[in-house]
Design goal:
homodimer, about 525 residues, alpha/beta, seven-stranded mixed beta sheet, five-stranded parallel beta sheet, 15 helices, 22 strands
């Protein structure tokens, strides 16, 4: 069986024993194995810091951008093979696989362009020079410089490609070496991307490492100038926030965790209107794309009480059209969940929602296409109806990470704001409306509880990729339950990997210093 | 004895029993007492969130700025009384007291002006609108909105006035209600400021609370949209970072902790030059001002090896001129440490430094002026010499929070960069030089380890307040040992109290939403 090695300390490493087997979640066939037994995590981090950091910091933003462009290209050149792996190991359709793989190359390309734009310098100016005394000479200038540590990225199982690409893009452009730790169960795509990057000798030695297999003691060896970026479940996030390097040494942590994302149908968006159709399209896509395993997927669908029955009927009709099965079979439009554990969690989540809501779609017979009987981690697209958003509890608190959503009825804009906020902080909420007053009330009411608020209106509905798509120009993250973190957002994405410092002194001298940096 | 009550839930609260006695650290005479026995911390936070939040958020930045201006004025109007309290309870000279009290009113006034500048809106635009698709209509706009929680401020004993003012200025301007918890031992000034603010009815009910006395279970009741800002020792910081609301609910924490701040004398700055004189002035001031109890005070003085003996002689001569005693005595130029615990800690720290360095100044007889024999928490200005910066350990790791500094010899610019960085992250470092090349090398070498780097050169030396002074225009904080936090920095200071959200949608609709906000 293929072994997915780790790349640390400038060499490929294969653990001895205790191997984890990666499977095809549609058929449960073994695909590869990975082990980190015997891997020296402390040495891996030191090597990245000491060997990878200096050459990266010596490059300008434009030069670092060139590295990202080369990474983007090597992914794109090998797209077909990566899509195949993504489908096999991730369980998604070809379209799902593109979402992950093209997301990786696209985000890297975006940050390559940003590097070009930032140009031939190594230091980022933050704001204007500010005069600090009566005379004009004594001034302050904030700058951003790369942190002299290593960036550890612990990525989620659902986006092995994009998760690697978007985090590496920001870290490398900011000038920090990275150690990527993909989720073991779906690490094949990340491993293959790493292999391509390493074979092509794109990055300076030490600037890129990958640990394929269990993380072991990795995070315990973090030090003061390192950073840790985690995407995954809230309980793991809580564990990581409490490790000694974070608590004691101010190691920076970015968390992107659970989120009960909302889609709100405006009272003005009548069935049949373009806005209503965009709403149906986006909700349907979010429930089924990647079998609902997107951190940004819509979980709560808010509809005006009078329209809610129609929404349930329309969504139900669309969801019933999906063909569940092995994505390698041509007619299949939704694949399995990624792992056996995910299936257990999703089933438990559905039971929890069923205890307080009405199941509308999803209780039919489950006979996945092209799959040996009894195999695979399948679940049907599932839709619940909840008529009492104010009293419901699980729907606001428990993220079911699969093709599952609930339609909640609401009466007034103020009620929907309160109900949406009961999610305790989320990644994204979308509003489907053309009524500017209502949009303003709702958007301003919910924005402080979300990292992103998407307003879908008739005139631009066909230009928008849907709220579930994370664009590198806008931040990705959210407060509270969503982890309190922030990634991407153009140049904002570099902040986490940079140290802001306020330079104070003679205007001419500071200008010379900044020019040199 | 005067009771320092807490102001919570819109009323003054006096704890029953278990009172802590505040003393004059020069004479050990009791001044007042404070107790929080029976205080309902959960209720205090709820009241602030629910009663204080909405009216603050309903105000524009300009209107919130007006509140800050009123706070600044009420402090300035009552300046003499506050200075008197600051001297009595804090142990500082009148000049030290001004540094704290005028720092409070000055920072509030600065943010009042910023509020005026931000004008009649409630929402802060973050960057420009960015086009997100080929067509021009679909755009993204980042905005900052107030978090809908309460800001808890746990302040350090050394700046009861400024610490309150600078944090409240940013929180209130951003639109968050505050609960201020000053260090109990020196809480008199903070209590009096609170009394003035409450009596003048400046802020909406619930927008300002103060807890005078032990914090009890306060932080355990924090919730997802709340924030916690802590200034103090690293070990308390570590405890606060590990509390459940932070680890589990993503409550934001800002920490400003320990720092081994450095002053670096450039190789070009010859004794007798203006730059050298500025260096002597700043180092002397930082060792003695507030009896060395400034988080930004210079602890490590780096001098070229050849000049180090002269530096020791010059600093020694200046430090020996200080008259230590009760600041109410006219000739006294340096008062006691603030508490008996501080005295114990400083003495232990001096012993730790003495084990690896040479004591140059500070071993004379200690007979504080105007103080009953045996009373008061006094220590002499103390200076160490360390000729081996690379091998020394305690001097880079242990912050002695008193009138204590070490002169370290260095050979080349690269060595001083490495030695300075051994502090593990600091608040501020200053460079005294007129050699642009050397300044560039050192500043860029150390900036990523410091929140602020001050370049003092001949032409502007007389315009600068010294590196120990925190100006609201520049950020205050630092990585690693310094806690990894960030305060102030003009409008940057509002970020901690705000949630960034990316709005996406039709350009015209988003403009209308932002206009409304």
């Amino acid at each position: 069986m293929q072994v997915l090695a780790s790349y640390v300390c400038g060499a490929w490493f294969e653990g001895k024993g205790n191997a984890h087997v990666l499977v095809n979640p549609a058929t449960e066939e073994p695909l590869a194995q990975a082990s980190t037994e015997g891997l020296d995590h402390a040495a891996a981090l030191s090597f990245a810091r000491e060997r990878g950091g200096p050459p990266l910091r010596a490059l300008t933003f434009a030069e670092r951008g060139d590295l990202l462009r080369a990474m983007s290209r090597v992914i794109h050149t090998n797209r077909d093979g990566l899509l195949d792996l993504a489908m096999k190991n991730g369980g998604g359709t070809r379209s799902d696989a593109k979402f992950d793989v093209d997301g990786a190359s696209g985000t890297l390309a975006y940050y390559a362009d940003l590097g070009k734009e930032l140009g031939p310098r190594k230091l980022l100016l933050d704001g204007e020079t500010v005069q600090l005394s009566r005379g004009p000479r004594f001034v302050g200038q904030h700058v951003l410089l790369p942190r002299r540590g290593v960036a550890v990225h612990i990525n989620a199982f659902n986006f092995p490609g994009w998760g690697l690409g978007e985090k590496v893009a920001c870290a490398v452009l900011a000038g920090m070496p990275v150690v990527v730790k993909p989720a073991t169960s779906t690490a094949f795509v990340a491993f293959r991307i790493a292999e391509l990057i390493v074979e092509a000798k794109i990055l300076p030695e030490g600037a890129f490492s990958i640990i394929t297999g269990p993380a072991g003691t990795l995070v315990e060896h973090l030090q003061g100038e390192d950073v840790l970026s985690f995407t995954g479940g809230g309980s793991t996030a809580a564990t990581l926030r409490a490790i000694a390097p974070v608590v004691r040494d101010s190691v920076r942590v970015n968390v992107e965790a659970d989120s009960l994302n909302s889609a709100i149908l405006g009272a003005d968006a009548e069935p049949g209107s373009d806005t209503y159709d965009a709403f149906l399209r986006d909700v349907t896509r979010d429930i089924t794309q990647k079998t609902g395993q997107k951190c940004t997927a819509i979980r709560r669908v808010f509809a005006p009480r009078a329209v809610a029955p129609q929404v349930l009927e329309d969504l139900g009709a669309r969801l019933s059209e999906f063909v569940v099965g092995d994505p390698s079979a041509e007619r299949v439009t939704m694949g399995p969940l990624a792992t056996a554990q995910q299936l257990r969690d999703v089933r438990a989540g559905i039971e929890r929602l069923a205890a307080e809501s009405k199941l509308v779609v999803g209780d039919g017979p489950l006979e996945p296409l092209g799959v040996p009987r009894g195999k695979g981690y399948f679940v049907l697209p599932t839709l619940f109806a909840q008529t009492d958003a104010a009293r419901a509890k699980a729907v606001h608190e428990h993220e079911v990470f699969g093709p599952v959503a609930s339609v909640l009825s609401y009466d007034a804009a103020a009620d929907v704001v309160a109900a949406v906020r009961r999610g305790g902080g989320g990644l994204v909420a979308s509003i489907y409306s053309d009524d500017r007053r209502a949009i303003g009330d709702i958007a301003l009411g919910i924005a402080s509880a979300h990292g992103r608020v998407v307003v879908v209106s008739a005139k631009i509905a066909d230009q928008m990729p849907g709220p579930g798509t994370v664009l590198p120009q806008s931040i990705h993250g959210g407060p509270g339950r969503a982890g309190g973190g922030e990634e991407l957002g153009g140049v904002r994405g570099l902040s986490f990997y940079s140290q802001r410092s306020a330079l104070q002194g003679d205007r001419a001298i500071l200008e010379a210093v900044c020019e040199k940096g």
